[in-house]
Amino acid sequence: MAVIEAVRSAQRPVIERAPAARAGVVAVGVLLAVALGAAVFNAAGWKLTLLYVFGLLLGLALFHSRFGFTSAWRQLATVGQGTALRAHMLMLAIACVLFSVVLGTGTSLSGAPEGNVLPAGVGVALGAFLFGVGMQIGGSCASGTLFAVGSGQTAIIYTLGGFILGSIASAFAANWITTLQKIGPTVSFADTPLGYPGAVLISFAIIGVIVGISILVQRKRNPPPAGRPPSARGIARVLRGSWPLWAGAVVLAVLNAATLFVSGGPWGITSAFSLWGAKLSGWLGIDISGSAYWRVPEHAAKLDASVLADKTSVMDFGIMIGALIASALAGAFILHRNVPWRTALGAVLGGILMGFGARMAGGCNIGAYFSGIASFSLHGWLWGIMAVGGTYAGILLRPAFGLTNPKPSDSIC
């Protein structure tokens, strides 16, 4: 037993102490947070301001827990490390319970709440596959892009730019994208005689199978332990990081359910990129309001309104500023310079694939995968399966853009 424990101890990564906080950057971040919060309140009132605060907290949680989707699937695919995937399952399990209460009672601060329930068909399958490829060569997913940009990772700005370009392109293909999205059945696990309690049980069964498979794969392949960033000690860890993955999973699930309760709809990210792209194009003298996507009355109304009146945009802004503050508190805010051209090219191309793929699939790793599964929609699980397939393809492409993949011989994933 002593030998086994020694081996286990040797495999555990040594956690370094977090460096000193970047006080000046923290101050700038707090000022930005307050100023933008005041602007949102002035433009749209208390409800969107509260959602903006949720965005700040999401940015804090995403950064401190380093809660990743891109890296989780890459680690599982390359070396069989399933720790992060099991954190996804914990997050989904908690969200399913909380969503069942909100959706089942029909109670929210914005009328009858509606989950993300879409057809599980061709559009989701193709879009999620493209997204899976894109996030591996682009270096991050939708949520990861926002918190990485906020924490000073300059290379991911290229990914964000690509995201916006892909979203602009998808606006011109909206008619055939809509046609593809309709090819397939719309299935909600809540549409059974057992209603939402039955939907929770079905979701738990699927989650249990995935957890079991990940454990079996991990035992068979015996991967190195997952890495841990530098961390503060004691109570300071709450603000200075790093959090364990389970803590990030709990906070993300609670905040997504809170978003559903306050706004009447769950958390999403990428629809804002379409809006930002259209606004930027207009400022540059390029009018894309006549494209198929922006001719839809609901979308046209958003294009005419202030970006600070858009729920998804203000939450995205909050995530970036929250990550800025969190990274500065952790002493980890560093602007990366001299990004290799191949990495920059991969980031832009990956962003374009994700931007287009998200619109085709009706959402990203948050809106379609996380919120879709929490809403008991079959399309959320299909999104996850196809994104994993895209992950394998993206892993093969990463070396062409100067990116490495985890190896079984690595001491820490």
What would your notes on this structure say?
It is a single chain. It is globular, with a radius of gyration of 21 Å. With 413 residues, the protein is mostly helical. The protein has helices spanning 2-11, 23-44, 46-65, 70-79, 83-105, 122-138, 142-150, 155-172, 174-181, 195-221, 237-240, 245-263, 271-283, 297-304, 311-329, 341-361, 365-374, 378-397. The chain is built from 18 helices and no strands. The model is unreliable at 1-12 (pLDDT under 50). The two termini are 26 Å apart.
The proportion of residues forming helix, as a percent range, comes to 55-70%
Order of helices and strands: HHHHHHHHHHHHHHHHHH
Number of helices: 18
List low-pLDDT spans. Answer: 1-12
Mean pLDDT over all positions: 90
Quickly describe the structure.
With 413 residues, the protein is mainly α.
Topology, pairings included?
Blueprint: H1 2-11, H2 23-44, H3 46-65, H4 70-79, H5 83-105, H6 122-138, H7 142-150, H8 155-172, H9 174-181, H10 195-221, H11 237-240, H12 245-263, H13 271-283, H14 297-304, H15 311-329, H16 341-361, H17 365-374, H18 378-397
